[in-house]
């Protein structure tokens, strides 16, 4: 999330990317805090066991044939 786990910059906006880089370079404590929070979020939400289970579920659903649209 922007300002919580990092700084989000829209694609193809080099001036905004530069601004975000300057902000973090000028505020090392903020950069460290965002980095630690981002690392924690990744560790909590993107564990290999969880990713593999989600992929396995998806493959199982796909192997069941075409999905039917609900009426």
Describe the structure.
The mean pLDDT is 89. This protein has helices at 14-26, 28-45, 48-63. It is an all-alpha fold and 71 residues long.
Tell me the number of helical segments per DSSP (H or I, 4 or more residues long). Answer: 3
Mean pLDDT over the full residue set:
89
Strand % is under 5%
**Rg result:** 19 Å
State the main characteristics.
71 residues, 3 helices, single chain
At a glance:
This protein is mainly alpha-helical and 71 residues long. The protein is 66% helix and 0% strand. The chain contains three helices and no strands.
Itemize the secondary structure elements and their pairings:
Blueprint: H1 14-26, H2 28-45, H3 48-63
């Amino acid at each position: 999330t922007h300002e919580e786990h990092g700084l989000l910059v829209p694609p193809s906006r080099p001036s905004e990317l530069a601004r975000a880089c300057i902000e973090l370079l000028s505020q090392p404590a903020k950069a460290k805090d965002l980095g630690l929070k981002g690392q924690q979020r990744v560790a909590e939400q993107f564990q290999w066991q969880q990713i593999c289970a989600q992929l396995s579920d998806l493959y199982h659903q796909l192997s069941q044939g075409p999905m039917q649209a609900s009426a």
